[in-house]
């Protein structure tokens, strides 16, 4: 006998999830729009009164789709809508009764706040995101859900790192470093290589910001080491954009180290790293990342000339 068709709500959710996966993979506005419409259609098939958890799941996934569409379209109002939708999901569930669903809704809320805070350069949204990710970790006890718990730590670190870039102080950056180290207590190069490498790359970026701000070469050497560790795992052929981003993070840390020490040697290494990253970022989809990296390369070459290197 053929398998029974899934209930209408589940079928609608599955279709919307497929569209969202396509939108995320291809950074495709049309697919993101279709995913938003799909999740909204799923909301029409479920009642918050009768099935609060399914309703909350739908709102949470809708928030993710709206946030992606807002980011792709650079639409601030859609990003505000993503926050409202995830907040709505949280009205139907509680940590005590549905801890993982509650955590996922908080994670969606944190992600929307991060994108909005970054686009508006508003520290209030980034501080909210950091607090929201910290709350989400409560729904993923480390001993039961170590990778989910670690992901919340890394996400919190990313929010705090952005906050530190904007507010001009060091406290948020130091807190971000602690969050990344917490995640790395779970992630390992052997069991979770992609997560381990990404977290090291993010850690390197934050340590570089901290070293630049404090003029402390120790932080900058730690930043270089973190990026080099990530590059032992990240593949130039399998994930070229990630490889190029980590290589750029390494180059930025080397350039900052040269500036603090007044030494041209790390700057020469930085220039070589920028050139390697640019060579990989050849496709039109990486135009912005390539332009930023090329700008950093030109600055490094100018500084090397000024140092007599």
Name the features.
single chain; 309 residues; 13 helices; 0% strand; mainly alpha
Write a structural description.
There is one protein chain. The protein has 309 residues and is mainly alpha-helical. It has 13 helices and no strands. It has helices at residues 8-26, 29-43, 52-73, 76-90, 99-120, 123-136, 146-167, 171-184, 193-214, 217-231, 240-261, 264-280, 287-306. The longest helix is centred in the first third of the chain and has 22 residues, at 52-73.
Radius of gyration: 21 Å
Provide the helix percentage.
over 70%
Tally of contiguous helical segments? 13
Mean pLDDT: 95
Morphology = elongated
The profile of the biggest β sheet is: none
Return the structural class: mainly alpha
Beta content comes to under 5%
The counted number of beta strands is 0
Q: What string gives the helices and strands in order?
A: HHHHHHHHHHHHH
Termini separation comes to 76 Å
Question: Uncertain runs with pLDDT below 50, 5 residues or more?
Answer: none
């Amino acid at each position: 006998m053929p398998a029974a068709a899934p209930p209408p709500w589940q079928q609608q959710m599955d279709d919307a999830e497929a569209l969202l996966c396509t939108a995320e993979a291809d950074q495709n506005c049309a697919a993101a729009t279709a995913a938003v419409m799909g999740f909204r259609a799923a909301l029409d098939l479920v009642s918050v009164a009768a099935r609060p958890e399914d309703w909350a799941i739908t709102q949470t996934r809708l928030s993710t789709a709206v946030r992606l569409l807002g980011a792709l379209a650079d639409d601030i109002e859609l990003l505000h809508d993503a926050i409202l939708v995830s907040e709505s999901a949280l009205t139907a569930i509680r940590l005590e009764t549905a801890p993982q669903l509650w955590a996922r809704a908080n994670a969606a809320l944190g992600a929307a706040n991060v994108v909005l805070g970054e686009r508006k350069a508003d520290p209030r949204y980034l501080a909210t995101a950091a607090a929201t990710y910290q709350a989400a970790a409560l729904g993923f006890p480390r001993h039961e859900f170590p990778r989910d718990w670690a992901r919340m730590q890394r996400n919190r670190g990313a929010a705090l790192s952005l906050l530190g870039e904007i507010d001009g102080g060091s406290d948020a950056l130091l807190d971000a470093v602690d969050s990344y180290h917490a995640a790395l207590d779970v992630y390992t190069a052997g069991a979770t290589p992609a997560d381990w490498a990404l977290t090291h790359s993010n850690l390197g970026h934050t340590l570089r910001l901290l070293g630049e701000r404090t003029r402390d070469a120790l932080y900058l050497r730690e930043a270089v080491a973190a990026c080099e560790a990530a590059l032992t795992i990240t593949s130039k052929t399998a994930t070229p954009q990630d490889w190029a981003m980590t290589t750029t993070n390494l180059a930025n840390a080397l350039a900052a180290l040269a500036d603090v020490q007044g030494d041209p040697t790390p700057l020469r290494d930085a220039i070589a790293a920028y050139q390697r990253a640019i060579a990989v970022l050849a496709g039109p989809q990486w135009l912005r990342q390539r332009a930023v990296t090329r700008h950093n390369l030109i600055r490094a070459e100018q500084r090397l000339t000024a140092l007599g290197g």
